[in-house]
Amino acid sequence: MSMTMEQIALEKKSSATVATCRFCGSALHHTFTDLGMSPPCESNLSADQLNQMEGFYPLHVFVCEHCFLVQLEEYVSPEHIFTEYAYFSSFSDSWLAHAKAYTELMVKRFQLGAKSLVVELASNDGYLLQYFVEQSVPVLGIEPAVNVAKEATKKGIPTLVKFFGQEMAAEMVRDGTQADLILGNNVLAQVPDLCSFVAGMKTLLKPHGVITLEFPHLMRLIEGNQFDTIYHEHFSYFSFLTTMKIMAKFGLTVFDVEELSTHGGSLRVYARHEQDTSHPVTERARELADREEKAGFTRLETYFSFDEKVKESKRKIMTFLIEAKRAGKSIAGYGAPGKGNTLLNYCAIRTDFLDYTVDRNPYKHGKFLPGTHIPIFAPEKIRQTKPDYVFILPWNLKNEIREQLSYIREWGGKFVVPIPEVEVF
Ligand SMILES: [Zn+2]
Fold first, then answer.
1. Parallel, antiparallel, or unpaired for β 389-392 and 331-334?
2. Per-residue burial over 285-299, b = 16 or more CB atoms within 10 Å of its CB, e = otherwise
3. Is 271 strand, coil or helix?
4. DSSP 146
C-alpha cells in the first residue's frame, strides 16, 4: 500500500519531532512528567533585561521503554548554559564538608599519594580538588565555565577549560595523562552526549584506576516528589540499574555504591575496568540493584504515576500561598537555586506571592529570577523586612538554613518548605 503525499508529510513531521534516547537511541514515546515551558534556570536577569523577550523551553521529561533512562531533550545548548555559570559550590558549608570527607575517604581506600593523579570532571572553582592538594595528591580539573575555572586557577588548582568527552580524553592520553581516580559530582546528569562522556572516562582511566560519580538517585526523586530537580541543565535522571547498564556498554563495571543524603538523595557509584578484578562487586551494590528491581524500575508502569503526584503537589503549594496572602501575610524566598526556578515557573509564583528572594552568592545580588522576575537580594534583607514566612527553595539545605536564619523567630517568622509536601515550621 503506497502512502499519500499527506501521509508522507505527516510521517516526516512526526519523525522529526520524536526524540530519541540519549543512551540507546530508541524513540521516546512515554512521558515521565511535563512541567510545561520554562526559561533556562541559571539565566538570572539584570534590571535592563526585564523588558526584553525571554526564551522559554519545554520541561517535558520522557522515560525510555528499553533502557529506562529518564531524560529531557537538549533544548538549550551546553555552551549557552555553562560558559558563564553562576553557581559557585564554595558557598554552601555542608557541601564543603561533604567534599572534604570524600577526599579523605578516597585517599585512604585507594591509597592515593604523590604519584597518583586525580582528575575531576566539572571541577567548578576547585572547592573539592583543594582537599586533595592539601593531602599532597596531584590533581587536574576540567571545567567548561570560563569564569568558574578562572577562580580555580587563582587558587592554584590546574584546570583545563573544556567540555570533556571521548575526543578530549584521547588527546590527554596521547599527551601522557591518565588518571588513578576520575570523579564527577553532579555532572553525569548534565552531559548532553552521555556516550562520549562515559567512553572518555574509560579511555582516561589507568588499568587499575577507579571512577566515582555522584548524581541524584531517581528512586529518591520519585519517592520524595522532587520534581523541581528537573531543569534544562539536567538532561538525564538515573536509576542504579540504568547506570550499571550504561557503564557496562563501555567496558566499565560498577563495583560499589553508597546512598548519600546530598541533593535530596544521591548515589555515589564506583566503577572500574571490567577486566580489573582487584575490586570485587560489593554486597551493597547487589542489594541496591535488587531493591530497584523489586520496586519496579525495570517496568514502564512504575514511571507513569509520577506526573499526577507532581500536579497534586502544585495544587498544595498554591493552596498554602493563596491562603497565606488572603490572611495578609508577607512571604520572602530563601535561595536562588536552579531548582527554585522550576518550581516557581511551573506553579506561576511571582512577586504576587514572594516579595523577593535572597541568596548568599554575591554574584546573584541585584539580579532577577528568570521567568518570574522575582528580585534577588543579600540575606540581610530578611532582617530588614521581617517577613511572616521564609519560603525555602533549596529544601535539601533546610536544616542549615533554619540555623542560619533562626533570628526570624524574634518577630514570629516561620519557615516553609514546598517539597516533598508543604511543611511550615
Ligand atoms: Zn534508552
1. parallel
2. beebbeebeeeebee
3. strand
4. H
Residue 319, judged by CB atoms within 10 A of its CB (0-12, 13-18, 19+), counts as exposed
Q: Let me know: does 228 contact 419? Beta carbons within 8 Å.
A: yes
**Separation of CA 216 and ligand 1 centre (Å):** 19
In one-letter notation, the amino acid at residue 355 is D
Chain position carrying cell 539584570: 46
**pLDDT band at 2, cuts 50/70/90?**
very low
Distance CA 132, CA 141 (A): 12
Question: Residues with Cβ within 5 Å of ion ligand 1?
Answer: 21, 23-24, 26, 64, 66-67, 69
Q: Provide the 10 A C-beta neighbour count for residue 278.
A: 10
DSSP 3-state assignment of 260? strand
Output the nine-digit C-alpha cell for 244. Answer: 550499571
pLDDT digits (tens, 9 = 90+) for 122-162: 999 999 999 999 999 999 999 988 888 999 999 999 999 99
In terms of Cβ atoms closer than 10 Å to its own Cβ (0-12, 13-18, 19+), residue 389 is buried
**Closest listed residue to residue 30, CA positions, set 42, 18, 39:** 18
pLDDT of residue 87: 52
Q: Omega before 280 cis (within 30°)?
A: no
Residue 17: per-residue pLDDT: 65
State yes or no: pLDDT of 86 exceeds 70. no
The DSSP call for residue 217 is B
Q: Give Cβ neighbours of residue 29 (< 8 Å, ≥ 6 apart).
A: 18, 62, 65
299 CA → ligand 1 middle, Å? 13
- 312's CB contacts (< 8 A; 6+ apart) are none
CA of 237 to the centre of ligand 1 (A): 12
Give the strands of the sheet with 357-358, arranged side by side: 376-377, 357-358, 331-334, 389-392, 414-417, 423-424
